[in-house]
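Hallway conversation turned thread

IA: we were arguing at lunch whether anyone had actually written out Transcriptional regulator PadR-like family protein end to end. Turns out nobody had. So, for the record, here is the sequence (117 residues) and right after it the structure tokens. Reply here if something looks off.
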Amino acid sequence: MSEAQAAPAINQRTAHELTAFQQNILTILSEEPMYGLAIKRELEEYYNSEINHGRLYPNLDDLITDGLLEKSELDKRTNQYELTEEGYELLLGDLDWQFSKLVTDEERAADIQALIS
């Protein structure tokens, strides 16, 4: 078995272990730390539908437990969520994989460059 086929190290994490919803939360928080309702609004805009608190907050808690987010208090009623270094590295690894699959010729490479410019 080659190194590329070997099982990943136990500590090596990848975005495919997360739901798309959780990946979207991480993507939103890659821009800046936010409180829960701001995250909810961003997700609602992306999905173009209402996001239930019962869906959002358990996912935030799972991402905290997984070490991908940190939670701090803004005040006694409001928590702020921030992407950890591990969460950021996980997102970068996923984007690297996705771009490696998209960029197959010069025309597509130009399309990708136009998106990130």
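OS: looked through it. Residues 39 and 81 are 9 Å apart (CA to CA).
IA: good, adding that to the notes. Confidence is low (pLDDT under 50) at residues 1-11.
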